[in-house]
Structures are given as C-alpha cells and as structure tokens.
Specification:
Blueprint lengths: L1 E8 L4 E8 L4 E6 L8 H4 L2 H4 L1 H5 L3 E6 L2 H7 L5 H26 L6 E6 L1 H12 L4 E7 L14 H6 L1 H4 L5 H7 L3 E6 L7 H13 L4 E5 L8 H15 L1
Parallel strand pairs: 3-4, 3-5, 5-6, 6-7, 7-8
Antiparallel strand pairs: 1-2, 2-4
Helix pairs in contact: 4-5
Length: 239
C-alpha cells in the first residue's frame, strides 16, 4: 500500500513530499541520496527488497524529498546559505515530517532512521540530534565528513554534522544516545570509502554511543544493488 502526502513547509519555504509503503509495523524513515526525492527508494528497488518485512507488518517505510541535498547539488546560494538549509532540513524533519509520521501511526513511537550515502549522514545526524524520536539508525555507505561540502564553518554546520557536535555532547542528550544503536554498513568496492564509517564509529564510540561497523567487503560497491541487500537485512535484525 502506497500513501502520498504533500504540504508546503513553512521552514523550507517550498513543497515537501512524504511517501509511505506498508500498513503496520515499526516506522522507518529512509533518507534519499543527495538530490533524491521521496520515491527514489521505490524506483531503485529498495522498497521491493523490503517486501517480506512490509507484508509481514514488521515495518512501514517512509521517505521524503532531500531538500538540503538539492540545494547542495544545485549550488543554491553560498556555502553558509546551504549549511543553513541543511540545518533547517533537519529541523523540518523533527517538526513537520515526524509529526506526520506519528499522525499516520496514530500516536508517537520510536522511529528507525536509515539511508545510503548522504542519506546515511542524515540518518545518523537525526538520531544524534533527536534521540527522543529516533532510537535506531542504519547508515549504508555513509559520507559523514559533510564539512568537505561546506568549506566555511558556521553554527548551522556545527549543529547539523555529528562529526562536529557529538564530541562535545554531555548531560541528558548524551545519556539518551548511550541507550540507542547505530549500524554503519559499508562495502569496499567501487566508489566506497569504508574509512568514513570507521571515522564515525570512533567519534560515537568515544562518547559511549553504541554502534557497529559492518564491512561487506570488496564485492559491494557504492550503488543501489548494495543498499537493496543491506536494508532488509538490518531492518529484520532491528525489528
């Protein structure tokens, strides 16, 4: 079952789409790749790969447009503006997309964040920023040193990038994060950089945040065939 919803985001100043597959189960918000839209995971077969979990009522998959990724790819404004858009995008997920998911689920419940490439960055960032909402994250072939795309440091970048803000965490937020779990899956094939996952793992581990790096080896490249294999395996483990 596919359900589509669209609204005008006052934070982003543009339309945003949210799509759902499945009827029952744990809500999983899957972030698209850099400039992807809400239905990217369907076109690339990820939804079909999770078909058994959907049919069994174990998960409901949600995905939304990658508005910050589009601003980055299309080079809207300068670096500081694009970092501001990234921060706004994360706030939009928390304040608009998550409430829409809760309404669809008839009440609040823990959400799994997932994504590949830049989507993995967003998934990990959302759990680290909002552990009251997101309890598990699956980052596949992640690009976590996002500052390479935003050469000028800013507070927007700091609050958006877990490589920046996680080392300074303390108090209640850190305590919550220490009860969460992040899976960092990577291959070593074409276009993959396993070092990104190990870097993120070192930062998380340094603060006592549970995480695991799974290296699938040289036969798995930075592409959809890898992510079609990874996501259903990890969702089966986490649900």
């Amino acid at each position: 079952m596919v359900v589509r919803e669209q609204w005008h985001s006052p934070r982003m100043g543009r339309e945003i789409n949210l799509v759902r597959w499945g009827t029952f189960g744990v809500p999983v918000l899957v972030f698209p790749s850099a400039g992807g839209d809400a239905e990217e995971i369907d076109r690339h077969g990820v939804v079909a790969a999770c078909g058994g979990l959907l049919e069994a009522g174990r998960v409901k998959l949600y995905s939304c447009d990658s508005l910050a990724g589009r601003a980055l790819l299309e080079k809207h404004g300068d670096d500081e503006y694009r970092a501001h858009v990234l921060n706004l995008f994360h706030e939009t997920i928390r304040e608009e997309v998550v409430p829409a998911i809760f309404t669809d689920c008839h009440g609040p419940q823990p959400v799994i964040a997932a994504g590949a490439s830049i989507g993995a960055f967003n998934a990990v960032a959302m759990l680290c920023r909002y552990p009251d909402i997101f309890h598990r994250a699956v980052g596949m072939s992640g690009t976590y040193t996002i500052d390479r795309f935003y050469p000028h440091w800013s507070y927007d970048l700091y609050f958006s990038a877990p490589t920046e803000f996680v080392p300074g965490l303390s108090g209640h937020l850190l305590t919550m994060l220490q009860q969460r779990m992040i899976i960092l899956a990577t291959g070593e094939g074409q276009w993959e950089d396993a070092g990104e996952s190990w870097l993120m793992a070192d930062i998380l581990g340094g603060k006592g945040i549970p995480n695991r790096v799974d290296n699938w080896g040289p036969d798995w490249k930075h592409d959809w065939e890898t992510w079609r294999a990874m996501l259903p395996q990890y969702l089966a483990e986490l649900t």
